[in-house]
Amino acid sequence: MLTLLGLGAASFGGLIVLDQSNSTAQGSSRRTPPAAAPGDNSSAAPGADGILTIYYSKTGANYPDLDLTVGNTARIAEMIRDRVGGDVFEIVPETPYPADYDETDRMAGEEEAENRFRPIRDALPDVSAYHTVFVGHPIWYGEQPMVVQTFMRDRNLGSATVVPFVTHEGSGFGNTLEVIADFWPDAQVLEGFEERGTQVHRDLDGARRDVDQWLERIGF
Ligand SMILES: Cc1cc2nc3c(=O)[nH]c(=O)nc-3n(C[C@H](O)[C@H](O)[C@H](O)COP(=O)(O)O)c2cc1C
């Protein structure tokens, strides 16, 4: 992969990404329940709080040369859950993306170019129990990875409140909001959160401050 970080640009497969991010800064903090373990999609009382966080995040090899035991977006999902509570559903592909970064990059590029929906391992939650759904993922090829788009295709959130959060390496939200409008045209979309994955990885405390400040601003 060609990397042009010094110029504020990176390349994913054939896609050149210019820096469109606009991270937030300092904020306050409020802590509530502990985060569910990654991959634990069981929940004692689904929908009790009316808030659901769904996310996809890749462990293992990641951009630019990271080997992550917890993915960047998963970190943000944990921070959101710590503050707002509610249920968490981790989107896990039925067949995992390859451990090798370049293989994943190639596969994801093909999948998105051909609009091939990737099956999800677990049964999807009944989303009718939730009034607010936080939706998180890395930016892949300028938008939601196809495994996230599978969830979006198969679960209609109706007029629920949708709160996007993404990690990326320069695209910011990319086309995320347009894709949300395509799948969930009646959703009420609040201001989302975006941050570079490398920034989250380098400074977890700073990322938590950014998340807390954003949540405060949008009323959580
Ligand atoms: C297959 C693939 C495609 C990517 N495409 C983009 C992109 O188009 N724009 C961008 O800014 N970052 C892109 N990235 C970087 C990821 O969005 C970034 O590393 C993110 O923080 C990874 O989050 P995760 O650890 O939750 O999976 C891509 C990464 C991968 C693996």
Task: Label this structure with key terms.
220 residues; alpha/beta; Rossmann fold; 6-stranded parallel beta sheet; 3-stranded antiparallel beta sheet; 6 helices; 29% helix; 21% strand; binds flavin mononucleotide
Quick description:
The protein is α/β, with parallel strands linked by helices and 220 residues long.
Describe the structure in your own words.
The chain is α/β, with parallel strands linked by helices. It has one domain (3-24, 44-217): Flavodoxin domain (Rossmann fold, 3-Layer(aba) Sandwich), CATH 3.40.50. Helix content is 29%, strand content 21%. It is built from six helices and eleven strands. The strands form three sheets. Strands 4, 7, 8, 9, 10 and 11 form a six-stranded parallel beta sheet that branches. Strands 1-2-3 form a three-stranded antiparallel beta sheet, with no helix packed on it. It has a two-stranded antiparallel sheet with strand order 5-6. The model is unreliable at 1-8 and 23-35 (pLDDT under 50). The structure holds flavin mononucleotide.
Determine the strand fraction and express it as a percent band: 15-25%
Give unreliable regions as ranges.
1-8, 23-35
Query: How many separate structural domains?
Result: 1
| SSE succession | EEEEEEHEHEHEHEEHH
Which compounds are bound in this model?
A: flavin mononucleotide
User: Can you say what the CATH homologous superfamily is?
Assistant: Flavodoxin domain
Largest sheet: 6 strands, parallel
- Number of separate strands: 11
CATH class: Alpha Beta
Our Rg estimate from Cα atoms comes to 16 Å
CATH topology: Rossmann fold
Helix content: 25-40%
Which geometry do the CA atoms define? globular
Helix/strand-derived class? alpha/beta
